[in-house]
Amino acid sequence: MKIIIAEDDKISNIVIANLLKKWGYEVVNFYDGREAWKYIQSAQPPFILLSDWMMPGFSGIDLIKKIKTREYENLIYRILLTAKNTVQDKIEGLEYGAQAFIKKPFDPSELKSQIKIGEKILNFESAQIEQNKKIQLYAEKMEKLAEERAKQLVHSDRIATIGLLSAGVAHEINNPTTFISGNVQIIKQYWPIIEKYLTSQIPNSAENRPKLEMIIEEMPEILNDIIDGVKRISKITASLRRYACNDTTRKSKANINNSLDRSLELVNNKLKYNINIVKNYTLEINKTMINENEIEQVFINIFINAADAMGKSGGDIVITTRNNEEYIEILIEDSGPGFKNNDVKKIFIPFFTTKEPGKGTGLGMSISQKIISEHNGKIMAENCEKGGARFRILLPIRN
Ligand SMILES: Nc1ncnc2c1ncn2[C@@H]1O[C@H](COP(=O)(O)OP(=O)(O)OP(=O)(O)O)[C@@H](O)[C@H]1O
Ligand SMILES: [Mg+2]
Q1: Residue in 305, 356, 366, 368 to alter for ligand 1 test, most ligand atoms within 8 A of Cβ
Q2: Ligand 1 pocket: which of 242, 243, 275, 353 to mutate (most atoms <8 Å of CB)?
């Protein structure tokens, strides 16, 4: 511990300094209050100030008053050396900011015990300041965390609302879609009869005969387009309803490698011409509790996206399965162009799509994320080092 002495009486100053050094303290001594103050301003607290009360020009009281105005005041223990010894004197000294008094001529044992008390108080104050800093840091961290959590909550609340609204809309759209689909199928079925009848009914002399004939001829194609359109609407409404529904109850024991193979079979039509599938199945867990249909839906979404991303030129899809003690890991990498710019941050947001209108609803990945999180797992996306997209799925072994 450092002790600063301010004492104009040279002999007392040296005697005190020598004693303190003998007791193992680091001592800096000044014969003038002003010099001592200059030093204190740049010295690193904590330290003890041992100052004579009465000094010409800049007294011990002046020193203490200056220190009182500084924020590190608590880290400088202030002892006044004084011949003044009445209660009134002490009250006055305390009011100015002194914390202890040593009467002159001084008794070494009193000096030692006052210094010891000062040392203890300073150690306590330093520990307190350290503790406060830690609490402050912790509080700031907690505040940040709370802010982040609040943002996440608002975000997931918004997504849940979108889900609910979409499910409602999907339900409303579903009924009329069913009528259109049923009726158009009936028209298609009876079209050959209608066509024959209509053709025979057009008089040879009819002015718009060529136009009518053209309409009749194109009708099968028009009907097919309607059927395709209706199918697309049904697919979208089914996705929306799936997004809003919350069914993880139908879990059973299944093998993830088999689920991957079944999903590949289901999208075989889309992959068979120009996509090469590489399987690194090193999974050691034979069965896991999952909702197989839902998990297969996730794989299908990823495979279709990969095929879409690679386009006509095709490429590779590399599938790796492995596990540690807690998790099964499924990696699906493609050799397409990968995610552009900041898209990777948005792909799990409902309705985010970069596909042309009519091609993607932007629900595939958000549904997949929902399914995986309902299995207490995680799904992450990133670009591979050598290009292409990589999806990493973690599923807990004990679900
Ligand atoms: N393998 C991939 N490579 C590059 N981009 C991808 C890949 N997978 C997904 N994406 C990007 O993520 C977006 C969102 O994918 P998501 O499956 O949610 O919707 P979508 O495929 O556009 O439509 P939907 O799946 O509903 O038909 C895609 O439009 C695409 O921009
Ligand atoms: Mg998709």
Answers
A1: 305
A2: 353
Q: Confirm whether pTM is higher than 0.70.
A: no
Instruction: Let me know the angle formed at the C-alpha of 206 by 202 and 209, rounded to the nearest 5 degrees.
Output: 65
d(CA 216, CA 323): 61
User: In terms of Cα–Cα distance, which of 292, 300, 264 is closest to 375?
Assistant: 292
Q: CB-based contacts of 2: which residues, under 8 Å, 6+ apart?
A: 25, 26, 27, 28, 43, 46, 47, 48
- Identify the burial level of 96 via C-beta atoms within 10 angstroms of its C-beta, where 0-12 means exposed, 13-18 middle and 19 or more buried: middle
Distance from the Cα of residue 107 to its chain's centroid = 64
> Phi/psi of residue 315, each to 5°?
155, -155
71: exposed, middle or buried (Cβ count in 10 Å: 0-12, 13-18, 19+) = exposed
Identify the sign of the CA torsion 238, 241, 243, 245.
negative
**C-alpha–C-alpha distance, residues 216 and 194, integer Å:** 9
Beta strand 315-323 pairing with 327-334: antiparallel
Select from 377, 292, 390, 280 the least CA-distant residue to 336.
390
Note the pLDDT tens digit of each residue in 12-58.
999 999 999 999 999 999 999 999 999 999 999 999 999 999 999 99
10 Å Cβ neighbour count for 221?
A: 9
